[in-house]
Amino acid sequence: MTYREIKPTGFLNHFIQSFWEYNSTETVEHTIIPDGYFDLIAEYENDSLQLVKLTGVWTSPIAVSIPESTRIFAVRFKLLAAEYLFQQEIKSILNTSKELPLSFWNIDSYQTDDFEKFASDITNQLQNAISHLKEIDNRKLKLFDLIYGNHNLSVTGLSENIHWSSRQINRYFNQQFGCSLKTFLNVVRCNSSYELISGGNLSPTDDYFDQAHFIKEIKKHTGTTPGELFKNENDRFLQLSTKS
Fold first, then answer.
1. In this predicted model, what pLDDT tens digit does every residue of 127-151 receive, in sequence order?
2. Phi/psi at 129 (nearest 5 deg)?
3. Rounded CA gap, 221 and 126, in Å?
């Protein structure tokens, strides 16, 4: 298995976490665990594009089987991208995905050695799309900057920081993404722990009350304990493998 990322720059950082490429020469079984993002995924088998799909937000783990000779090009999006880049809700695909045409964003024009071109072309396309947006709600920009950047904030703390009622934020989350703000904050908090866990640090950060709370929350969203995540036998947990 090989994996690499290209990070976006500039204003696009508000919408994209990374472009990523995955390659497997043998059939592998992975468990995908919640990370606080959603993905556009293009799957190639034997150098032929087979599938383009959009995932929703994950709040629970899912098992996936990846056939041999598979290469994946993907874009990992922050939640704000659903409203402003895709201009649609993704609550209908919470914890699942939907297929898109192979020609979506001209993905069928790329070969399996075109990852840099894939990332560059989509960057240019999305930057152009953003420049033509009439208005982006500054409260939402600040909301997601705080969510992804400060894992200690509560629903109340976020509400006070951006002067937007917690009831309205929760309505926005449920209507747009299919989960409550509190659930999503817990997912992002777990994701912030994965890198430490992959390095063997199984102690809770300040994001958790104590060890018991840490284990409970990690197990709730990943289906297993921090210790099992650290072992990560056979690269079962893909996100842990990419952080180690």
1. 999 888 878 899 999 999 999 987 6
2. -65, -40
3. 31
| CA angle 83–95–21, rounded 5-degree value | 75
Q: Which residues of the chain have pLDDT under 50?
A: none
> pLDDT tens digit string along 151-183?
678 899 999 999 999 999 999 999 999 999 999
Cα separation, 193 vs 20, whole angstroms: 20
For residue 243, what are its two tokens? 């952080």
Phi first, then psi: what are they for 103, rounded to 5°? -85, 0
User: 18 near 60, Cβ under 8 Å?
Assistant: no
First-to-final CA distance of the chain = 13
CA distances from 178 to 152, 183, 199, 218 (A): 22, 10, 32, 21
User: How many whole angstroms separate alpha carbon 141 and alpha carbon 94?
Assistant: 22
Cα dist from 207 to 23, 121, 129, 184, 192, whole Å: 34, 38, 36, 14, 9
Q: Percent of the chain at pLDDT above 70?
A: 99
Q: What are phi and psi of 149, to 5 degrees?
A: -105, -15
pLDDT at res. 244: 62
201 — phi, psi (to 5°)?
A: -90, 105
CB neighbour burial string for 26-65, b if at least 16 within 10 angstroms, e if fewer: eebebbbbbbbbbbbbbbbeeeebeebbbbbbbbebeeee
Look up residue 14 and give its DSSP letter: G
Cα separation, 100 vs 25, in Å, equals: 25
